[in-house]
Amino acid sequence: MKRIRTRFAPSPTGYMHIGNLRTALYAYLFAKSQGGDFILRIEDTDRARYVADAVEFIERTLAAAKIIPDESPALGGNFAPYVQSERMDIYKKYAEQLVADGHAYYEETENGVAIRQKMPRVGETTFYDVLHGNITIANSELEDQVLLKSDGMPTYNFANVVDDHLMEVSHIIRGTEFITSTPKHVLLYEFFGWELPTFIHLAPVMGKAADGTVSKLSKRHGATSFNDLIEAGYLPEAITNYVALLGWSPKNSCQEIFSMDELIKNFSLDGLSKSPAVFDYAKLDWMSGEYFKAMSDEAFAVAAEKYLVDFDEPRKIFLASLLKTRVAKLSDINEMIAFLKILPPFDKELFSNKRNKLTPEKSAEILAPAIKILEQVDLWTLDTLNEKISAFVTQSGLKVGAVMWPLRIALSMQKVTPGGVTEILYLLGKETSLERLNAALKNLA
Hints:
17 helices
């Protein structure tokens, strides 16, 4: 049986869009699920759009997504080089062979001589696609395409066919935008007498606008590259997991959270959909949140390091424990804990609460004795603070909410906080906590 070999062949003309990442992921998962090889090849023949650091960026992105090539420009392999601009002699040889066999011809251009493929004028070209079945295009619709430009640089449609054959690629996984070019590729395989690979053309990834309309995913829908999503604070593992489900689902399973090993084990081509997938940020948020919840407090603290307050290690770990069940992406933390760094401006009206029958004046009456009790606390721990606050609630004869509300507002100047009053007291420490409480009492007076 022929060994399964797939490839991801991006152009270094920019950063990796979610659609590119999904193509790479599916090619990787299929190869690995079959015990085969996954190749990274750089198709840099479009020199006008070449971005200098794009190759390194692509390699870093794949590494972060845990998509590990078996062969690549960096790793090498039996079919090196894996950069098209380093394979010019190869393309020249095969283009000239087509001319000699009568399937291509030389053409004079302003800049020199180019080589064009000679298309048949009658008949049809048919190829089979795993998702779309047999696809037939009349040869009369195919123009004689340039194979080799006058500067010796091959076109994409020629170079990718030569490379896929020479690198023994068995399955070509790419977007539906390449369907119309595939008959030209098929004819090249036939002209050379080469065996056709298996084609799988993936439906596009769509984005949903605020008004509910759906169109091909673009910047107007939000973050659309792996790097954008990482910068927004999503975990790489969560992004990869979510992207895997954009057009694929496991057979006989409702599972949605997958490790990379589980994706490899479950992946199959018959789980692919030929319908477009819609990128749903709410679903990504949910999935990312599930990953955070599954992390240890220590691991989350490391992942969220740049967003956390510069507390001592125990308080930093405790803050991580409060946050990891509340965030969808790490950047959510900034707004959530901003009050721990800088107390927002005093707002007297925040102390009013109809449910607990509180007014600013009533809140002041509660804060004063609460502050006196907290001033006497020597061991500023969660257990001690819980004990003292609970005792105060009992002694006051008030409902728990009536006591906690003015304390929370005085400490944070916001209605919703990660953690309750005792957690905020512990995180802020005795000195800062009492400073904030006394300042609030003074302002209320």
